[in-house]
Amino acid sequence: MRPIVIAANWKMNTTPADAGDLARTIASRTREPGVTRVICPPYVSLAAVRDALAGEDVGVGAQNVHHELAGAYTGEVSVPMLAGLATWVILGHSERRAYFGETDALIGKKLDRALAGGLRPILCVGEVLAEREAGRETQVVDGQLRGALEGRDPETLAGAGLVVAYEPVWAIGTGKNARGADAEAMAQAIRASLRALGWGSRADETPVLYGGSVTSGNIEEFLAEPGVDGALIGGASLKPDEMAGICARAGITAKARGLAS
Ligand code: PEP
């Protein structure tokens, strides 16, 4: 049974002074049976969020990690540095790909490090607007998955709980969300790509999230789709009211899918 995951990507927002309070407020308003919650603050706020969430069943994640363990990489953070601070990590976010030149091959190396260090990865994939307009979204996402996952052991990846987030770039931070049917079609395409990579039944066990301008007002459209298992949320994840509404709806899906005890 796949989990329902609601993951908050705070991007470059909050400071160590205010992140703990925000995390505590969100945690207290989003306790829904069967919903896996994750908060990914900036690196410098990881400790504050971890401390604020002590005793809460909320995962803490980093938004990125370097592919080497240590060395002359000014400004970077490695997997060992995250020990005790984070148990999840977002990899391949479109903003990392667009602004920091991350390639599928690099993301694959980060994936290896994350897994070796016991971090649970949320691997982001998604097409830009021109690619969707050209009808190439499935091909693009397949290429991203292949580029990051090919040659890597499906059992290791699936065993570590790899989550794939389908995030069409044209929907991120734009207020223009995809339709539920688009997300469902891409979730099916992602699992078909995993099967083509030799994942077998592991493909059907892999959670696929939707991300891109998700709010409490549109989350229902995505969670109504059987292949969509939650959401990766940017802007709305900084607003406790929004997170409360999103998780309340996720709780309904968790119950309907037999995940809530
Ligand atoms: C994201 O950062 O992954 C994201 C989906 O952002 P937003 O919800 O703001 O579109």
What is the second-level CATH architecture? Alpha-Beta Barrel
Ligands bound to this protein structure: phosphoenolpyruvate
Structural class: alpha/beta
Helix-strand topology string? EHEHEEHHEHHHEHHEHEH
CATH superfamily: Aldolase class I
Looking at the structure, the CATH topology is: TIM Barrel
Write down the CATH class: Alpha Beta
What Rg is obtained from the alpha carbons, in whole angstroms?
17 Å
- Annotation, overall tally of beta strands: 8
Estimated share of beta-strand residues: 5-15%
Work out the helix count: 11
The profile of the biggest β sheet is: 8 strands, parallel, barrel
Helix content: 40-55%
Structure description:
The chain has an eight-stranded parallel barrel, surrounded by five helices. The longest helix is centred in the C-terminal third of the chain and has 17 residues, at 180-196. It contains eleven helices and eight strands. It has helices spanning 16-29, 46-52, 94-100, 104-116, 129-133, 137-149, 154-159, 180-196, 202-205, 219-223, 240-256; strands at residues 4-9, 35-40, 58-62, 88-91, 120-125, 163-166, 208-211, 230-233. Helix 6 packs across helix 8. The chain has a single domain (4-256), classed as Alpha-Beta Barrel (TIM Barrel). The protein is of the alpha/beta class and 261 residues long. Helix content is 41%, strand content 15%. Residues 9, 11, 167, 172-173, 211-214, 232-236 line the site of phosphoenolpyruvate.
